[in-house]
Amino acid sequence: MPSNDLQRLQTSVELVLAHARKLGASQAEAGAGKASGLSVTARMRDVETLEYHRDQSLGVTVYFGYRKGSASTSDMSDAAIEETVSKACSLAQFAAEDPYSGLADPEFLATDILDLSLCHPWGLEAPKAIELALACEAAALNQDKRLSNSEGATVSTQTGAHFYGNSHGFMAGYLDSEHSISCAVLAIDGSDMQRDFEYTVARDPGELASGESVGKEAGRRALQRLGSVKLDTCSTPVIFPARLARGLLGTLIGAIRGSSLYRRATFLLDALDEKVFASHVIIEELPHIPKGLASAPFDDEGVATRNRVLVENGVLRGYVLASYYARKLAMVTTGNAGGIHNLQVSNTGESFNDLLKAMDRGFLVSEMMGQGINIVTGDYSRGAAGFWVENGEIQYPVHEITIAGNLRDMYRGIVAIGIDTDYRGGIRTGSILIDKMTIAGN
User: Fold this and answer.
1) If you average pLDDT over every residue of the chain, what do you get?
2) How many CB atoms lie within 10 A of CB 183?
3) pLDDT value at residue 245
4) Do the beta carbons of residue 211 and residue 181 sit within 8 Å?
5) Which of 1, 163, 215, 386 is the most exposed, fewest CB within 10 Å of its CB?
6) CATH superfamily, domain at 4-224
7) By C-alpha distance, which of 6, 100, 112, 111 is closest to 330?
8) C-alpha distances in angstroms, 62 versus 16, 30, 90, 149, 258?
């Protein structure tokens, strides 16, 4: 996406602020975005879908004192923008006063907009995308005759532009891109049917794994699950592999978010400076990693992002706050309007095989199902499939069980974190070994 798209977005944002000022708003802000991309899915050795998209949006928020009004549009014409601002101003007149509302305080706004190398266009045309998707799926299906069905292989590419401005004088934007290849296939042996998947994602297409390797891994994982059995109910150590371990820490972010804290609806209420993890756990937020999938020079309010430690030697050192709930909690924003920016989890030096040996006997998760997490109490109960481990080695596949525990106990019970860090998301962590969870089966 050319940089002149940023210029057009800036012009739109400037028009918003000028019209809001004309209508008497005491403060105003606008975020504008454009994205375009291509997506191809091949299924059963044929093209199933071919999609091209181009989207744009503009969000407007105005303040009249402590009264707030918001509106949005996908029409970026001058007339539509002015009408959207007028609607936001009209809505503000009916809003109740909220003394905590308003723009981010000026002293927190970013002044040095870092170039984080977030935009690397692929230039992928439809014929090549189709070729890649077909080759990815073929690599999966050709491995074994038991791989006889497929949910498809998808190749996608997207490039976007984002711009934000407010009446404090902040005005900045950046370009970004994201590309991916994924594949999901079914292994069938008689009445036994198992599904699994693999994917690769990166901002730079040169850093994607090959489509063939993605397909082969998807097929291997599906085959590995054939012959799954149920376990008897027991209490045992559990390993969450890196690709699933980030979900455990995603729940942490929900528990220390400003809205949860203010509503007193979190199991980590008033836990700041308390030990909530095992002593060896360190979790840092690193927003400025070049090409990072969750990197950003500023948050959705224009607040500068910065490196910080969320968990230090097991002790919770920070919350995840935007300006509104920060004010309600008598704190200051942490630059997390819109979410977190690259959580990096420490490791304890072991390889994945080392973790299996350390566990000796227990359950290795390969898939999680359902949403059985109570963020208020920390109770955790989800459907799962995976593998039973004896003497530090995988023995046989397992399905139709539930794993349960409480997140407070699970976090404190982290025995080790592997060096097999998965970088395919905003939370970067290796596999996690937890000392004990309940397996509900037969």
Assistant:
1) 96
2) 31
3) 95
4) yes
5) 1
6) PmbA/TldD superfamily (3.30.2290.10)
7) 100
8) 10, 9, 10, 53, 22
Q: What percent of the chain has pLDDT over 90?
A: 98
Q: What's at 159, amino acid-wise?
A: T
Each residue of 382-399: pLDDT tens digit? 999 999 999 999 999 999
> In this structure, are residues 351 and 419 in contact, taking their beta carbons and an 8 Å threshold?
yes
Q: How far apart are CA 17 and CA 22, in angstroms?
A: 9
148 phi-psi bin (left φ>0, alpha ψ -120 to 50, beta other) = alpha
pLDDT class of 1 with cuts at 50, 70, 90 = very low
Residue-wise pLDDT for 127-159, tens only, equals: 999 999 999 999 999 999 999 999 999 999 999
Tokens for 239, please give them: 């390993």
For residues 10-27, one letter each, b for 16 or more C-beta atoms within 10 angstroms of the residue's C-beta and e for the rest, the string is bebbebbbebbeebebbb
The Cα–Cα gap between 192 and 174 comes to: 49
Looking up tokens 């850093």 gives 207
Q: Is the pLDDT of residue 25 over 80?
A: yes
User: Got the DSSP string for 107-174?
Assistant: GGB-SS-------------HHHHHHHHHHHHHHHHTT-TT--EEEEEEEEEEEEEEEEEETTS-EEEE
CB atoms within 10 A of CB 251: 16
What's phi and psi for 99, nearest 5 deg? -65, -10
| Widest pairwise Cα distance in the chain | 73
What residue segments make up the domains of the chain, in order of their start?
4-224, 228-442
